[in-house]
Amino acid sequence: MSLGDILQGDFFTEYIKKGDIMMLSEGQTAVSTLFTLREGILAMFVDKETYERAGLVGKPYGAKGGRGSKPRWVVTYNLRDPSMLRGHKGYDRLIYACKSVFTQPMTWLFCNSTTQSKHNQAL
């Protein structure tokens, strides 16, 4: 599932806008592209080249580079913000980056914290 698949359609509405989920993509913050989603906040940890190609606003993350390490960037979005809908500039820019840069399908760890078990209902 690519990042763009998560940010559009029923999944986006039901699980991110209304629900309370946590997601973690494959990858490592210091080496490869990594996405985290917690309480509606999407954090994208990317290298400098990917950051520049995506055209999103972010901040430097970790070491500034040097001796074998490359500079990293973190881009965050509050997906529960009312402006995170199609037709709004920030959301459309994020979707464009998903279609042009973040196109690779990834494996995700998914936790739905709104799911209730039978034991919780009995209490």
From TrEMBL:
Listed GO CC annotations: multimeric ribonuclease P complex; ribonuclease MRP complex
Domain of life: Eukaryota
Originating species: Fusarium oxysporum (strain Fo5176)
Pfam families in the record: Ribonuc_P_40 (PF08584)
Entries under InterPro entries matching the protein: RNase_P_Rpp40
Protein name: Uncharacterized protein
PANTHER family per UniProt: RIBONUCLEASE P PROTEIN SUBUNIT P40 (PTHR15396)
Example of a GO MF term: ribonuclease MRP activity
